[in-house]
Amino acid sequence: MQKIKQRWEIQKNWQFLFPILGTFLNLLTAYLISRSLLHIFNLNNTIYEWFFTLGVMLAIHLVLIKFFLWCFKKLENKWRVDYKWEMIAIFIVFAITGSLSGKLAGPLIHWLGLDAENIPGALYWTLRILLIFPIYQILLVLIGWLFGQYQFFWNFEKKMLKRMGLGSFLR
Prior knowledge:
The chain has 6 helices and no strands. It is mainly α. About 15% of the residues are buried. Helix 2 crosses helix 3.
């Protein structure tokens, strides 16, 4: 436990929440991917189902952990954070925001009456993807605030909008 505290610069016990939550979400992602692969290989309801699921899940989990540690190393100097555990919180916020904005765009576009049955498929998906963008921008700051990273995400948001030529919205 002391090794984890030192590696992620954890000062208080509540900060353990982020490595634990990050590990849980990584395992969940690996599980969902392995279950999708299970269906692709038609191994449902066979004797190999759970062996396949657990084996592939652990392999994907390890690959994702290696990938995220590589990302942390690359972004460590670019993102200005006080403690390394904040990097985990930032990655979690990006993951939740991306997933949630994609999920919310469907019901919102339905509420606007722009279902795939009403308009051509290409237009539907174009509008849905365009709708994801403002949802993502709002959720990024909101969820960042919930995870105690408001200042990081507000600065990130301002920089992104300026690069896109939308800096006038910040005034």
